[in-house]
């Protein structure tokens, strides 16, 4: 395993890239409120974000180091990061939950008339009460809150080697867990128990935690890929699918595996072969010069004959500090692939009307082509016949 | 274990309470975007919210049933809920990610001039891109987007018996997992392994998943309560604290336990006794007629001598579909306790300068007093001396 966290140089590189982009976009400061955005610049890693109570803020000025404006409960942990300017208040404060402290910080770090960029485009949200944001704007009438010119998306879309190693570690853990599924799944075992035991496998293999597990088991394919488990026992003829996003040192894997409980039907076998064929077709062209849309079409040709998609809406996406990140593998996404992008390839196929199967792998784009991060599945669906 | 999900009557009761409150507040529709808000009215339970890509919307009109406006990938699962009016689009759509569909729905369900309530006060956020919200507003110039008059907070703060049973089940699972900690923690074992093994215990005891685990191990107390694990091996003299939020059928437990690795020092023993004393003092007065602030003061008197708090900011909070919910046990929160409120009691104490210990239990308010949901800890800290 690689060491935890990052060297300070990693953060300095991220900061200098951000500041160069801010100069170009005429943005005096980035104003960040979500977990991955704040962690990207600080390394601040905690599961405490699960609590929605307290807002957390990071200001990245166009010159100088980031300033954390955070609840005092996080002061000790943030104090262990490379950030030195940490301003805290005792949250929750019903009269003023950090808004004045934040406004004062932004006023100090940006000139009047400045544009303050906050991520506002697709796949973003503002993690603070809307009323507090409106109050912040009223406290700073001479500042223009605007989109971040997609600076955060651009930065995070391309991973450093240190990030890729963490993603590889997460994927290696997930690959090992999937290889043990035949030990925990057989006819008669409730799906909910398979879900619990699979998460235990992920942890035993070294996952720090397992933020995501969805899946299904149903005869000849399933209805969707986002359901939690029910208590229905596995039965012969079921296709079992497990799709996990586990975390190692703050970075996700995100891929799934399909299993046939008992012998697979010819339709299920063929569907799985096509899913692997589609994945391999996208992998083969995944290199600098291709676009996200190209990967979509390479897969869609095989799984739908080129119909242009399905209800899933896309056939893969970026992966990193979050389970899903830009870009999306859809016809409308012309993002050029560049070295360092980490992607999922996630084709789905309709086996019979209303019954689907989905397969997923994780890859990284390199100068000369793609490299697997997950251990790629063979064309033959694994049959659990014990 | 109680059956999964809720009877339809539960949702109808929630809806009629919401609609009564909307009449009073002159709100023509609630506009909801976050996981717990949408699940509260629909029962839509999926871990897919871990992906930030797609927005999800629910409109609760002042009369009639809720309308789901959601990505097509969720249509199958939402179709299994009691909701019948489900409008989908194929997300992600870079030109229009559900905004027009949502605007049309709001226009259909509310008259011109109507007030549309969205949760905007403390502990809320808007889970959609800010630019899309601004576009929504521009598409509906004749509607007034306003705070939800705290209707969602008020509804969710008081749990039904069916909800309390799910919370009790989650707490029972966590209590069982904590009782096995002496099997997984001893000198020489890295804290990160204890974290992994503790999550495995939670799953083995029946947790569906473990969204939250924080903790620490350090000599004579720890520096904070929100840190992830590091690889430092446990050593004699450490206080080990594990604080978990695990989920059973969509409802959380949230409490911690402290363990002494080897014999506890007198300071650590005394600190633990005081924490239990503080918890019991709050428990003793937790009944209708008391307020959230009263519980704070009952604990604060014992752990600080009445100093009025610490960096943690509060000494407990609500608990339910989220790890933390309103109210907060702070001096400023005068929320009256009513039967059905589920709370955590979470006093913290400074053992020596910079070294703290925190204890936490979960309770439900009943007509005549409080009832434990967690199995309350005894005053003596558990010593792991094997």
UniProtKB/TrEMBL annotation, chains A, B:
Residues 14-158 form the Creatinase N-terminal domain. InterPro entries: Creatin/AminoP/Spt16_N, Creatinase/aminopeptidase-like, Creatinase_N, Pept_M24, Pept_M24_MAP, Peptidase_M24B. It comes from the Bacteria. GO terms for molecular function: aminopeptidase activity; metalloexopeptidase activity. Residues 165-364 form the Peptidase M24 domain. This is Peptidase M24. Gene3D superfamilies: Creatinase/methionine aminopeptidase superfamily, Creatinase/prolidase N-terminal domain.
